[in-house]
Amino acid sequence: MRQRGCKRDSQRAKRIQDLRRRIESRGGMAAVGSGLPPEIEEQFLRHVLACELEEEGGPPLLEQLRSVGVEVAPPDELDDERLPAKLREVIDGLATLRVYLSSTDHLSDRDLYRYLWKDVLPQPTLIDDDPRSAWHYGVVGGGSDEDIAIYLRYYADSEERARWATDFPDMDIPTQERRPFDRDRHLPRPRGAQGGGG
Question: What is the value of pTM for the model shown?
Answer without folding.
Answer: 0.70
